[in-house]
Structure formats: C-alpha cells, structure tokens
Amino acid sequence: MSSVGKTPSMLRIGHGYDIHRTVPGRPLVLGGVRFDCDFGLDGHSDADCLTHAICDALLGAAGLPDIGHFFPNTDPAWKNADSQLLLRQVVGELKKRGFATVNLDATLVAERPKIAPQLAAMKAALASATGLPMGAVGLKATTNEGCDDIGRGLAIAAHAVALIQSS
Ligand code: MG
Question: 107 CA distance to ligand 1 centroid (A)?
C-alpha cells in the first residue's frame, strides 16, 4: 500500500536484444566506447549493438515501437550515427510520455576483443546518455564459449532489460 495521499509509481519492465555482424574496416563502438580493434560491426549507424539493445529495452518498457521505427536504417540521417545520441533521444521520448528510467542491466556477448578493461567507461557513457547514476547501470560481458557464430567472432550481440516508472 502507498502512503496516504500518494499515488504509487507505476513500474514497467522492458527487454531488448540486438546482434550485428563483425566486419573489417569499421570502428568498433560498444556502449558508446570505441575499442582499439581490427574489426567493427556492420550496420547503418555506428552499429553499437549494446546501446541498441538498451534503446529497445527502454522503448519496450514504455510500450513503444522498436528502435527501427524511430531511427529507420533507410534514413540517411542515421548513417554512421552515434548511438549514444539515439539513446538520448529514446530517453527523451519516454520523458515526453511521463516515464523516467529506474535502472538498466545489460549483457554483452562477444568472443573478442576483451571487454572488461572498458566496462567502467561503457557504464559511464551509458549513465551519461540516460541521466542515471552509475549504480543504476548494470553491465556484464561474456563470451559465447566458442559456440555458434558469436563464438566464431562473426557477430557481437547484447541483451538488456530496463525498469521505468511513471514520473
Ligand atoms: Mg542494431
């Protein structure tokens, strides 16, 4: 029960998933951080699959269409776009509808490069883009243990969940 005279916040959860193929000749950007790497990810924007998964988790929590609806890959405006800007816009779309983000949690699945040394920088970038404190951004990285295309280094994927509340 809420305290007298106070309407309880409405909590909503959302899930996001994204995967992009690895390709030579593109910068690798994950969670808004550029990695020193001999390959990048294929895609219309900067192909930051982690940030895209977080965008979709937030949009899903709000009952909104996915990232492709807001930033179609047929629109030249998003060619090589910085996905941190897309994330900022997603947070703005939620705000317009009266939602604030409570916390995020995400898992990056990549065989290489080593993600751990950049985890803190990625968390800081994601916290900045969403306006959350660092402690409200969960981020882990794992390999796919050599299994499937991700395990062979042909793609990098990310899973994310987001909790939002009516503000
Ligand atoms: Mg994507």
Answer: 15
Q: How far is the CA of 157 from the centre of ligand 1 (A)?
A: 9
Checking if the pLDDT of 147 tops 70, the result is yes
d(CA 134, ligand 1 centre) in Å: 23
Identify the structural domains of the chain with CATH numbers, from first to last: 11-166 (3.30.1330.50)
* Distance from C-alpha of 59 to C-alpha of 80, rounded to nearest angstrom: 21
CA 5 to each of CA 1, 34, 137: distance values in angstroms, whole numbers, following the listed order: 11, 48, 31
Give tens-digit pLDDT for 10-42.
999 999 999 999 999 999 999 999 999 999 999
Ligand 1 centre distance from Cα of residue 10 (Å) = 29
